[in-house]
């Protein structure tokens, strides 16, 4: 069952399709806006990350190896001052912790009452690209990684950090993140449930639209998508080597091979992350964790495909209007034995762009 719910954004009404019985819960496919790239972090979002043991144990292994006796920079420490406190626990000499959001910064300050925290941690309010520290840090922990790896601006933020905040030989955690993409049809990602926003995602949708001042075609974040909807293996469409070559903009072309009959109207993307070069990777599709997957629409209608058909996909990321968060653009050509070649494209800017441009967005915002 779905119901239309009206949100009032800057004096105008925006109608949203909601599944009132569906909230984000383990193992249930649920839809919300991709929110990590926007200033929408609330207590529930931080709790989901602080309780994410799959993620946290990988970060802890890296900090345990790297931080003892060193100066550490924690970019985007969040309301729980998490990696700054863990760095102290693993013997860091001095820690700078930066947090952009005022309320998160205020809540992070409460953790300074813990033993050793106030002596070793300097908590700074603001975005890392506008703050200064001295001395430079030898280790940087930056959990500003999105479900779409680069969406939170990690490339621009880390490029600035290397230039102004870090020593020449500084090590960054995580070490490497990639985004994979596979062919899917949107409605199939929800198995037998309706394709509608989860009731508990409405608050994030409202915050994002109010932040922008108007509705726009938000990126669609799907937790626990039905795996049967993926009609082929994932291929890497975005690479962030945080201790290597880290371009601010990138373009990657891949050929996705359809491996069984079904329907395709877009691609599902998800994160794979390594905290250390030799560490166990975290694959957000294979693991229950705080990261989800992001669906990008391409074709206006579902295209029938057979095993052996091909989807040629190019994903381009360019710096958005704030010079930090990327805009994404997808170009695709679907080659099918039955219907020949069909092309499609989709633009997903960080901010703005069109509203109700694609049939999936017209369905979700009726
Ligand atoms: C994904 S959360 C991670 C929170 C915490 N570090 C953790 O791992 O649980 C990202 C946090 O970084 C903050 N943030 C993002 N970019 C930032 C930047 N360039 N400088 C300072 N804070 C930033 C956000 O406000 C948010 O609190």
Task: Give the secondary structure arrangement, pairings included.
Blueprint: E1 3-9, E2 12-19, E3 30-33, H1 43-50, H2 53-66, E4 71-75, H3 82-89, E5 94-99, H4 102-109, H5 117-120, E6 121-125, E7 137-142, H6 154-164, E8 166-173, E9 176-184, E10 197-198, H7 202-212, E11 220-223, E12 235-241, E13 250-257, E14 262-264, E15 266-274, E16 282-283, E17 293-297, E18 303-305, E19 310-319, E20 326-336, E21 340-348, H8 359-364
Parallel strand pairs: 2-10, 4-5, 4-7, 5-6, 7-8
Antiparallel strand pairs: 1-2, 3-11, 9-12, 9-15, 11-17, 13-19, 14-18, 15-16, 15-17, 19-20, 20-21
This protein binds S-adenosylmethionine.
**Proportion of β residues?**
35-45%
The CATH topology assignment of the largest domain is Hnrnp arginine n-methyltransferase1
According to DSSP, the number of beta strands is: 21
- Average pLDDT works out at 96
User: Percent of residues in helical segments?
Assistant: 10-25%
Count the DSSP helices. Answer: 8
Structural class: alpha+beta
Protein name: Class I SAM-dependent methyltransferase
Organism: Micromonospora rubida
InterPro entries: Arg_MeTrfase (IPR025799), SAM-dependent_MTases_sf (IPR029063)
Region (Disordered): 344-366
């Amino acid at each position: 069952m779905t119901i239309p719910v009206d949100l009032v954004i800057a004096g105008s009404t925006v109608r949203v399709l909601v599944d009132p019985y569906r909230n984000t819960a383990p193992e249930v496919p649920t839809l919300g806006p991709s929110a990590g790239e926007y200033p929408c972090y609330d207590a529930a979002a931080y709790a989901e990350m602080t309780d994410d043991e799959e993620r946290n144990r990988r970060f802890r292994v890296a900090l345990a190896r790297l931080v003892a006796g060193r100066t550490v920079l924690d970019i985007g420490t969040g309301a729980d001052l998490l990696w700054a406190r863990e760095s102290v626990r693993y013997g860091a000499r001095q820690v700078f912790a930066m947090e952009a959001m005022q309320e998160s910064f205020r809540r992070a300050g409460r953790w300074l009452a813990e033993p050793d925290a106030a002596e070793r941690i300097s908590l700074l309010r603001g975005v890392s690209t506008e703050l200064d520290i001295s001395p430079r840090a030898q280790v940087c922990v930056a959990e500003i990684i999105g479900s779409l790896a680069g969406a939170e601006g990690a490339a621009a933020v880390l490029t600035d950090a290397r230039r102004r905040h870090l020593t020449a030989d500084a090590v960054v955690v995580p070490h490497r993140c990639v985004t994979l993409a596979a062919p899917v049809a949107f409605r199939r990602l929800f198995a037998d449930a309706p394709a509608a926003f989860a009731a508990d995602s409405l608050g994030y949708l409202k915050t994002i639209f109010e932040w922008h001042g108007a509705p726009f075609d938000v990126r669609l974040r799907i937790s626990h998508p039905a795996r049967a909807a993926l009609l082929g293996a994932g291929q890497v469409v975005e690479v962030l080597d945080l201790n290597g070559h880290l371009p601010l903009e990138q373009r990657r072309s891949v050929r996705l091979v359809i491996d069984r009959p079904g329907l395709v109207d877009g691609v599902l993307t998800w994160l794979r992350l390594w905290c250390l070069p030799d560490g166990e990777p975290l694959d957000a599709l294979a693991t229950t964790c705080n990261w989800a997957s992001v669906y990008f629409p391409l074709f206006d209608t579902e295209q029938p495909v057979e095993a052996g058909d091909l989807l040629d996909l190019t994903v381009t990321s360019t710096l958005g209007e704030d010079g930090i968060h990327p805009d994404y653009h997808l170009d695709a050509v679907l080659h099918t034995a039955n219907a020949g070649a069909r092309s499609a494209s989709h633009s997903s800017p960080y901010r703005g762009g069109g509203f109700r441009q694609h049939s999936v967005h017209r369905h979700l915002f009726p």
